[in-house]
UniProtKB/TrEMBL annotation:
Residues 197-390 form the O-methyltransferase C-terminal domain. Residues 77-145 form the O-methyltransferase dimerisation domain. InterPro entries: COMT-like, COMT_C, COMT_dimerisation, SAM-dependent_MTases_sf, WH-like_DNA-bd_sf, WH_DNA-bd_sf. This is O-methyltransferase domain-containing protein. One of its GO terms (biological process) is methylation. The lineage of its organism: Eukaryota, Fungi, Dikarya, Ascomycota, Pezizomycotina. PROSITE patterns: SAM_OMT_II (PS51683). It comes from Extremus antarcticus.
Length: 411
């Protein structure tokens, strides 16, 4: 017990100089690499190293108490940004000019007092620039958030996944702290007080949520779907089977990935297919019918109807499912394949066995919402082996969005 009047509390925060110096040297090194980078890939690598080193410097130079406090305030920050998008603050801000609180209030059907609470909050997070008192301009981030699909991506994460994540611990407290495997009782449906319904079935029953989900997936077109088109040697594939198909984007949503592949490899046009659930394809896609055949397909319940394609591609699909379901999906493809001339491609991430960055680890937690998971290389091998396939190559292994695991049928 301390005596009356004694000051209690944590010791003063003094980050070690040696660690600060080494992180600051890592930042300088990444800047030098960026300055000297000759190719687009070298530049991207240098920027990623810079971002990692500056995050580490920020971590070691923030006191543990402040780190916890900052983290605890994350839902509040999310709420402020969500409101800014919802009220149209970013869309109403003119591009290349600034606007006053009063002007924004009038354009957003709000009042200046309210704008003057939301705008400084989102500016303090880097989502707007506070030019002077009560005057705001765009930043690169707010410019992105004017895009419909970017707004959907935020909506999907905050309005949909957010509700699930706030209830994730309640789910595990009830079901046991174990990887979820029950596809009909996922953390997402549990968070809505429902049971015995699959994640995508639940989305189908809530078309407004599924629309936001599909748009959010299309946001990848803005932020990196190019990687799938450039990281895999598409030119080595020859169309085949009765439909003369080179690649099928299975579970491809609105088709932004297959469109990107065709943009980079025009010879694939006319030899590509897009498959997804009927309701997803029914209200239109991003592909042109001359280039891409659109075929509704339920990959868990039906055998693959398009025979002999060179590649059956699953982009960000198998991560939605536990191993048992993935094995079922893959077995539904075996009879359609033209033996070893066909391959299956998985554009998901490959978790590192150790030292995985948050960009990967959090994606794995995100997948818990639908009882899915991200997989490490060992887990990819094991799951594919059980389904009757063997991994032949992994392209772009470190990319959090666009690794490509290639597999063929086992002998
Ligand atoms: C995470 S999204 C990925 C979409 C797209 N491949 C991409 O990269 O953005 C998963 C996709 O799987 C589709 N899907 C879910 N269950 C399916 C099923 N049983 N059969 C076919 N597609 C399904 C969803 O509609 C959704 O488009």
């Amino acid at each position: 017990m301390g005596s009356v009047g004694e000051t209690r509390g944590p010791p003063p925060f003094e980050p070690p100089i040696a660690v600060l110096k080494s992180q600051s040297a890592a930042i300088q090194k990444a800047i030098d690499q960026y300055e000297g980078a000759k190719t687009k890939d070298d530049k991207a690598r240098a920027v990623s190293a810079l971002s990692q080193a500056s995050t580490l410097l920020s971590t070691v130079s923030t006191s543990p108490g402040d780190t916890v406090q900052r983290f605890a305030f994350q839902p509040v920050a999310n709420g402020a940004v969500r409101v800014a998008v919802g009220m149209g603050l970013f869309n109403q801000l003119p591009i290349g000019k600034c606007a006053t609180t009063e002007e924004l209030a009038s354009k957003c059907n709000s009042d200046p007092e309210f704008v003057q609470r939301i705008a400084p909050a989102v500016a303090s997070l880097g989502f707007l620039q506070e030019v002077s008192e009560e005057r705001y301009a765009h930043t690169d981030v707010s410019m992105i958030l004017c895009d419909d699909t970017a707004q959907a991506s935020l909506g999907q994460m905050l309005d949909n996944v957010g509700v699930t994540m706030m209830n994730l611990n309640n789910y595990y407290r009830k079901h046991g702290y174990k990887s979820p495997k029950d596809v009909n009782n996922t953390p997402a449906v549990f968070a809505r007080g429902l049971k015995d319904i699959g994640y995508f079935e639940w989305l189908t029953q809530n078309p407004e949520l599924y629309t936001v989900f599909n748009k959010a997936m299309a946001f990848h077109s803005l932020t990196g779907v190019e990687g799938i088109a450039t990281s895999y040697p598409w030119e080595k594939l020859q169309p085949g089977g009765p439909d003369s198909i080179t690649v099928i984007d299975v579970g491809g949503g609105k088709g932004h990935a297959v469109s990107e592949i065709i943009r980079h490899h025009p010879n694939i046009a006319g030899h590509a297919a897009l498959q997804d659930l009927e309701n997803v394809l029914a209200d239109g896609t991003l592909v042109s019918p001359e280039n891409v055949k659109v075929v509704p397909y339920h990959f868990l319940d039906e055998e693959q109807p398009i025979k002999g394609a060179a590649a059956y591609m699953f982009r960000h699909c198998l991560c939605d499912w536990p191993d048992e379901s993935c094995i079922k999906i893959l077995k539904n493809h075996i009879r359609a394949m033209r033996g070893y001339d066909s391959r299956v491609l998985f554009s998901d991430l490959v978790l590192s066995d150790e030292g995985a960055p948050a960009s990967k680890t959090l994606r794995d937690i995100n997948m818990m919402q639908c009882s899915g998971k991200e997989r490490s290389e060992k887990q990819w091998h094991a799951m594919l082996d059980e389904a009757g396939f063997r991994v032949t190559n992994i392209f772009n292994r470190d990319d959090p969005m666009n690794s490509v695991v290639e597999a063929v049928l086992k002998e």
